[in-house]
Design a protein that fits this description.
Layout (H helix, E strand, L loop, with lengths): L6 E6 L20 H13 L4 E6 L39 E5 L14 E4 L2 E6 H7 L4 E7 L1 H14 L3 E10 L7 H11 L3 E3 L7
Parallel strand pairs: 1-2, 1-6, 2-3, 6-7, 7-8
Antiparallel strand pairs: 3-4, 4-5
The chain binds pyrazine-2-carboxylic acid and zinc ion.
Length: 202
């Protein structure tokens, strides 16, 4: 049994638009669900912090093809694609961070996000929030391995958190074949620990 004292869980961008049927679907992105939910439940039981990051893009976001960016329109503010993958059970006391909410700024890393409190985006960064909660270790799951998971893990390492990437709780887009494997190698090279989380029927 893993000792979770001083640990927090970060669930990266587990949103409809990154799941099969979504605007920027990660192939089999929904398959991470059992692992993600098991970790949420485990951290909740342990009374440890659970953080959700989400893309919260305005209609004319700089990353969209319509604006000359690389991606189809996705995770538009308050559209169904922005919503969480529907089977997720979100604890009441979870912390929510939004990113990419300014028209001319993209953000892959959750560490570029800001805390949402009572429906408003605040000034609080993920790093300051984690440090204020005495977190030393972060467990990372979510989508997509080769973009937002990678960027979040690298920023966590640079901010001196022990960083555990749960390998069966992430999936990549692989725009170029091998991108996800390369991302995992990059995270490991920078010091991330890789862990497979045991899940029944997972
Ligand atoms: C992401 C591409 C564009 C991600 C977000 O969550 O990995 N990828 N926006
Ligand atoms: Zn995005």
């Amino acid at each position: 049994m893993q000792d979770l004292s001083q640990s927090a869980l970060i669930v990266v961008d587990f949103q409809n638009d990154f799941c099969p049927g979504g605007a920027l679907a990660v192939p089999e992105g929904d398959r991470i669900y059992p692992v993600v939910q098991a970790l949420i439940d485990r951290f909740q039981e342990a009374g440890r912090p659970i953080i959700f990051t989400r893309d919260f893009h305005p209609q004319n976001h700089i990353s969209f093809v319509s604006q000359g960016g690389p991606w189809p329109s996705h995770c538009v503010q308050n559209s169904p694609g922005f919503d969480f993958y529907p089977r997720l059970r979100i604890p009441q006391n979870a912390a929510h961070f939004y990113k990419g909410y300014l028209e001319n700024v993209d953000a892959y890393s959750g560490f570029e996000g800001r805390l949402v409190h009572e429906g408003r985006i605040t000034e609080t960064t993920l790093e300051s929030w984690l440090k204020a909660h005495d977190v030393k270790t972060v467990f990372i799951v979510g989508l997509a391995t080769d973009y937002c998971v990678r960027a979040t893990a690298l920023d966590a390492l640079h901010a001196q958190f022990e960083t555990i990437v749960v390998t069966n709780g992430i999936k990549g887009v692989d725009v170029n074949p091998g991108d996800s494997d390369q991302a995992i190698a990059d995270m490991q090279k920078e010091g991330a620990l890789l862990l497979e989380w045991p899940v029944k029927n997972g």
